[in-house]
């Protein structure tokens, strides 16, 4: 057997190996693959003979991955996932491509989604799959092509293109403001403050921007800006929110500014593209469209 052939196992054997590794059972894997247990066992033996490595440890009751099997299982799972994605792309969109895009929950919903119909109309041959991700992740492991990310332009092995900077300001509901004496930024420190889990130092930075010491008391914490905005509208406290994400609430009068100067955040929103996806046509089309849309 040539070296190239030896390094390219039979796809049926890989599917059987992945199923047994995931399910921990030859019987369950056989049921899932619509094969006999003997057929699954033969596929596993084929792999073990091909690599001269034991992939599973077997006893009378259990089957578990060997050390070599655990390492190989991660790679096989990723490779089979990429093959499935490629097949789905061919079947769903034969003439162009697919863009797997990670977005931030509130920013994606409130800022990006209203623009997407224009992209779909301009690029009918590109299908976008959206997933929600907060923070950094492994593009290759997640099988994603690009991400809308909040932070600094320092994602390793990736290009970061600035989309929009962020200005934050304290806001309250009109009823909350009317029922309390809030005349200056210092008054805000005596009120319930709503905190974002992803921005733990935001209030401290804002108070320092006003020349004040930040209060140290506890406050409600939220994971998403949309939830924090709802809590603020319900009168639960003062929220420090990006103005770009609450433009509708401000326009409708559901939220109003509290005293104090808005502050530009040190971080911003970027389109992040890993280096190995620079030449992926759907990524290039999306980046060009997004920048042109922002320029207009």
TrEMBL record:
<feature type="domain" description="HTH lysR-type">
    <location>
        <begin position="9"/>
        <end position="66"/>
    </location>
</feature>
<dbReference type="InterPro" id="IPR058163">
    <property type="entry name" value="LysR-type_TF_proteobact-type"/>
</dbReference>
<dbReference type="GO" id="GO:0043565">
    <property type="term" value="F:sequence-specific DNA binding"/>
</dbReference>
<dbReference type="GO" id="GO:0006351">
    <property type="term" value="P:DNA-templated transcription"/>
</dbReference>
<dbReference type="InterPro" id="IPR005119">
    <property type="entry name" value="LysR_subst-bd"/>
</dbReference>
<protein>
    <submittedName>
        <fullName>DNA-binding transcriptional LysR family regulator</fullName>
    </submittedName>
</protein>
<dbReference type="Pfam" id="PF03466">
    <property type="entry name" value="LysR_substrate"/>
</dbReference>
<dbReference type="InterPro" id="IPR036390">
    <property type="entry name" value="WH_DNA-bd_sf"/>
</dbReference>
<dbReference type="InterPro" id="IPR000847">
    <property type="entry name" value="LysR_HTH_N"/>
</dbReference>
<dbReference type="InterPro" id="IPR036388">
    <property type="entry name" value="WH-like_DNA-bd_sf"/>
</dbReference>
<dbReference type="GO" id="GO:0003700">
    <property type="term" value="F:DNA-binding transcription factor activity"/>
</dbReference>
<keyword id="KW-0238">DNA-binding</keyword>
<dbReference type="Pfam" id="PF00126">
    <property type="entry name" value="HTH_1"/>
</dbReference>
<keyword id="KW-0805">Transcription regulation</keyword>
<comment type="similarity">
    <text>Belongs to the LysR transcriptional regulatory family.</text>
</comment>
<keyword id="KW-0804">Transcription</keyword>
